[in-house]
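Researcher: Batch entry, complex prediction.
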Amino acid sequence: MTIYIDLTPQDVPFELLVFWTFDSLGKRVIRPEYKDLLCPGCGKVDVKKALERGVSDDVIFTTTRDLFGSRDCMYLVNVRTRQLLEDITATAIDYYEVPSVPDYFVALPRKLLIPHKGDPNFLIQPECKVCGHLKDARYRFKPMQMNVDVEVGAFALENGLGLMPLWFVSENVVKAVKATKPKLRGFSFGRALNPPECDKSTAEID
Ligand SMILES: [Zn+2]
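Model: Structure tokens for the complex:
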């Protein structure tokens, strides 16, 4: 049984948005290149389609972190992190170039587990009738059994802006990150999502 640990980026002292920007009145608005990807029902952006279209030239930042998170919940990694993850997870993660910061990529695991209604491990609001995405989905952080066989994946949580992935990684990945010298910066590992003693098999993800 693979033990999965949740992975979140540590906070950074700046606010970066990948898909959104601010208008002249300071209101948060979708970047013009993704305007047609907004759902008219719930107002959320289709994150996967936006990433496939490409990250905007206006996404610019400076950081010494090897992993950090954007305000719209994307995980950004640099070349060094990508290399390490690719060594362990092969093609389990898609990487999208950040054209104005060529050392960095938006990273998204291919294995996205969508919480099911009635699963007590998640707090869920029903799906939008237009786009089919859950209006809101949060993790309650209860141990669960997970029937997946990957080194890395993510729960497809949702907030009012769109997909809010919560990554989980195998102990192999945790060990490899912790063994790096100099140590990779920006990783925050939480608890085991599925500790061996867990017998509450309630998850209906995926
Ligand atoms: Zn919608």
